[in-house]
Design a protein that fits this description.
Elements (H helix, E strand, L loop, with lengths): L3 E8 L3 E7 L5 E8 L6 H18 L4 E9 L2 E3 L2 E4 L11 H9 L2 E6 H11 L9 E6 L3 E7 L2 E2 L31 H4 L1 H11 L14 H9 L3 H25 L3 E5 L6 H15 L9 E3 L5 H19 L1
Parallel strand pairs: 1-4, 4-7, 8-11, 11-12
Antiparallel strand pairs: 1-2, 2-3, 5-6, 8-9, 9-10
Helix pairs in contact: 1-2, 3-9, 5-7, 6-7, 7-8
Bound molecules: zinc ion.
The site of zinc ion (ZN) has 6 residues, from loops.
Length: 314
């Protein structure tokens, strides 16, 4: 039925965004609000239902049977397992509660998985069945699409690529481990590395606690400290990506998220490292920047909703 659309919600620690999306991936209506942080999961359910009603009213000539919600954490069987930025949702039967209030089938997805699905459906990896996506934001999220299907793992925790280890005794990571790629190639890593290198580069224009954007600007102007930060970022990304190539043998690797803005500064070092380390003889996949920007997550979430819709119709 061509008039069938889905609702896709992108729930972040700060904002809740929602869109009504057609089967072609066209966004027909969108809205957003701040994520309620009252400590109650029910306030978040209410906000989602309110946004969903608004979307539904604005698209009243379409049929809506599925709502998908992406969450910044791990999800399994319609429940949130753990979400560090919205701890009130931990262990909460989120999908069932939304269904109870809004009355339509609801599915959950991890936000980085959603971005990977989005880029695989309509973005940089749209011509490939097998792709791996890294989202370089404040932290690093990841998603692995194999044969057109997102890899979820036993506990919904597959594709946590930000915690691939690139330095055995490296920087402490929020996950409890050390030396995760998140500590070397995220926006917060750029800030940390710039601070730590400061002493070695007394002539740098960067002050203490420069933001990632300031380090980026300084690097573009030739600042040696800032350049070194992006060299390290690229080298460590290259180590992590070599491992991903060796494990998944994907057709494409997509890099998106705010910190991928520094692409021209880190990519040469990333490519050089992969060339040096990649398993002999294996063909190396193209490594591309994402093309959907901020919409990757919401479009991927919509695709997850369409997949559920199709499984209901079978
Ligand atoms: Zn970690």
């Amino acid at each position: 039925m061509s008039k069938e659309i889905v609702l896709a919600a992108d729930l972040g620690g700060t904002n809740l965004r929602m869109a009504a999306v057609s089967r072609a991936g066209e966004i027909l209506f969108r809205n957003g609000c701040e994520t309620p942080r009252t400590g109650s999961p029910h306030a978040i359910v209410d906000a989602i239902v309110q946004s969903a009603k608004e979307c539904k009213d604005s698209c009243s000539d379409h049929e809506i049977r599925v709502l998908a919600v992406s969450v910044p954490g791990t999800v399994k069987n319609g429940s949130v397992v753990t979400t560090p930025n919205l701890p009130m949702l931990d262990g909460f039967a989120f999908a069932a509660e939304i269904e109870k209030s809004f009355g339509i089938e609801t599915v959950l997805e991890n936000d980085a998985n959603a971005a990977a699905v989005g880029e695989n459906w309509l973005g940089a990896a749209k011509d490939f069945g097998n792709s791996v996506c890294l989202t370089l934001g404040t932290g690093i999220g990841g998603g692995v699409v194999l044969g057109g299907t997102i890899l979820r793992g036993t506990n919904g925790a597959a594709g946590e690529l930000g915690h691939v280890c690139v330095e055995a005794n490296g920087a402490q990571c929020g996950c409890g481990s050390r030396g995760c790629i998140e500590q070397y190639a995220s926006a917060s890593a750029i800030v940390r590395m710039a601070n730590e290198l400061k002493e070695k580069f007394p002539d740098s224009v960067l002050h203490s606690n420069a933001t990632a954007a300031e380090v980026f600007s300084a690097a573009k102007c030739g600042d040696a400290l800032a350049g070194e930060v992006f060299r390290e970022m690229g080298t460590y990304l290259g180590i992590a990506i070599t491992d991903l190539i060796n494990i998944f043998d994907p057709e494409a690797i997509v890099i998106c998220g705010g910190a991928s803005e520094g692409w021209e500064l880190f990519a040469p070092h990333m490519h050089a490292t992969i060339k040096q380390r990649a398993f002999g003889g294996a063909e190396r996949p193209p490594i591309m920047r994402g093309t959907l920007g901020d919409n990757a997550g919401i479009l991927g979430t919509a695709r997850v909703a369409f997949d559920r819709l199709d499984s209901l119709s079978r």
